[in-house]
Amino acid sequence: MDKFNSNQKIKDIVTKFPKAAEVFKKFKIDFCCGGDRPLIVAINNQDLDEEEILDSLNTIYENFANNKTNKSNKSKDWTSIPFTDLIDHIVNKHHAYLYENLPLISELLTKTLRAHGASHQELQEVYKLFHMLKMELDSHLIKEETVQYPAIEKYEKSKSIVDLEQAIQVSKELETEHTEAGDILKKLRKITNEYIIPADACNTYKSAYEKLEDLESDLFEHIHLENNILFPRLYSLKK
User: Fold this and answer.
1) pLDDT tens figures, 127-176
2) Residues 109, 221 within the same domain
3) 5 — alpha (psi -120 to 50), left (phi > 0) or beta?
4) What does the pLDDT look like over 3-28, one tens digit per residue?
């Protein structure tokens, strides 16, 4: 029996089965900021093959289920673990990734623009968009670590409705920032022609585009954990 169907929301599929993100990345389906849509809407909007996508999802799920005793296939249920554990995961994996890679990508793009900007004028826009994203993420991470996460942790200890409302207010602000970051990522993918590396690209150019695509992938997972799991869990507590 098939596990998934196209009437399910994208975010629900990834929440229940995190490895589904691999399929959505392959087909360029937004599962973070655009996750609150039935899968069929994304399929129709992007003129994709519904049968191919469902076959891919259900095949990867079947393979996972048949190897469920393999420890490497086990994944945490982020919908039920304590908030602090989910926050620690986001900080230690996704924030750490950004702290390491944002400066590196900036350096690579600067060198690439200097060397190839005259012959590849789109690099001016790539450079500008990335640094807009970097500036937003730099302040965003600080807000998460100094305001939002402490507010959530405070509520988890106190169970106070006042503390919960504070945590929810900050979360709604961050959701808006996530959407803005997602819009920049879409523009970057478009201006780079799906991160296709030009024939005359040097190794620095190649590394810059590869790192940008990796950044997109990590941010999708990062935002999914917050928009589709952490924040809804908070909102559901307010009765």
Assistant:
1) 999 999 999 999 999 999 999 999 999 999 999 999 999 999 999 999 99
2) yes
3) beta
4) 899 999 999 999 888 889 989 989 99
Counted domains in the chain: 2
Per the structure, the complete domain to which residue 90 belongs is given by: 83-236
Please report whether residue 2 resides in a domain: no
Please return the burial class of 135, using the count of CB atoms within 10 Å of its CB with bins 0-12, 13-18 and 19+. Answer: exposed
Is there a domain that residue 190 lies in? yes
Q: Are residues 59 and 33 in the same domain?
A: yes
Please name which of 11, 26, 23 lies closest in space to residue 213, comparing C-alpha atoms. 26
Whether 41 is covered by a domain: the verdict is yes
123: tokens are 């690099």
Cα separations in angstroms, 194 against 27, 64, 70, 204: 12, 29, 35, 18
| C-alpha neighbours within 13 Å on the C-beta side of residue 97 | 15
Q: Are residues 133 and 151 in the same domain?
A: yes
The helices-and-strands tally (H runs, E runs) of the chain is 11, 0
- Report the distance separating Cα 179 and Cα 238, nearest Å: 23
pTM (two decimals)? 0.86
Amino acid 205 reads Y
Of 72 and 96, the structure prediction assigns the larger pLDDT to: 96
In a shared domain, residues 94 and 205:
yes
95 plus 120 within the same structural domain: yes
